Amino acid sequence: VPKEALQALLVRRVDPDLVVRAESVLAWARLVPSSERGADSAAQAAGVLWRCVVDQHQLWREATGWHRVQAQRRLARWLRHLAWLAPLGHPGVRQLLAQLPSRLGLTFVLHHGDAEHLGFVLAALNQPESARWALWIWRCLTGVEPQAAGLTLPDPPVELDSPLTRSQLDADHGLPLPDVAAVMAHPASRLSTLTGQRLLMGRPVHPHLLRELLDPASNQFQALRFVAAHALEQLHPTYALNLRASAAVQALQLSRMGIAA
User: pLDDT tens, 155-172?
Assistant: First the structure.
């Protein structure tokens, strides 16, 4: 990467425009693999994006209608990148999660991959609006299939004459309903003792694992493949995978990466 390009991005980090500051960090992350980021430069980038996320969250809270929807999309995107830039074990992550809406916080934890925050996921199981999504996040972190492990409940019967509740308006229908007590008691819920490495499906995040999850023949959920593709892009920016391409094209892209499954 030309030094002039990286220097131009560094200048943009102090731009008065919020979006320019955040996007300069995201562009830098796409150009510099995580293995080549110095500790100081990564910390500075994370600090800039962190402050942008805080400001964008405030904008989202104050927005309405279409502007609120767009603000949330931008916030979610920045959070996915911050989840990779923020170092594992950073004390500010808990404070950030406490400020975010539950669903956005869960998405951050999923991409961050630190089992230290499984407690946040377990707490979300008790919230009807996010229970199903929280169980899916738990699955992605631990690698345990909830239905096979007997950790789910049957869906309650729908009373057609009763008013809709917030949980019934949730977009997660189709995901299983958690048996909260059973999930809490499962040994995988104590993975928080394993700190110091990012986890996905109960395994340390490594290009081999990501290659395995991204293989179209693996028949993984598209949402999980999206998480794996984002992680791979952070580790190797030149390996960006087009998840909208056909299975044949994706298999060809993966074969050119030189990563053995």
Answer: 877 777 766 665 555 557
Q: Is the distance from CB of 9 to CB of 44 less than 8 angstroms?
A: no
Residue 121 confidence class, pLDDT cut points 50, 70, 90 = very high
For 194-197, which contacts have Cβ atoms below 8 Å and span 24 or more sequence positions?
194/115, 195/88, 195/89, 195/114, 195/115, 195/116, 196/88, 196/89, 197/88, 197/113
Q: Average model confidence (pLDDT) for the chain?
A: 87
What is the helix, strand, coil percentage profile of the chain, to 5?
Answer: 60, 5, 35
Taking the CA atoms of residue 167, residue 171, residue 176 and residue 182 in that order, the dihedral angle to the nearest 10 degrees is -50
Query: 46: how many CB neighbours lie within 10 A of its CB?
Result: 21
The pLDDT value given to residue 157: 78
Mean pLDDT of 183-198: 82
Q: Which amino acid is at 175?
A: L
| CA-based nearest residue to 45, from 73, 24, 31, 18 | 24
What pLDDT was estimated at residue 256? 77
This model's pTM is above 0.85? yes
Pick from 244, 243, 223: which is nearest to 80 by CA? 223
Residue 21 and residue 44: Cα distance in Å, rounded?
12
The residues facing 199 across adjacent strands are 204
Secondary structure letter of residue 155 according to DSSP? P
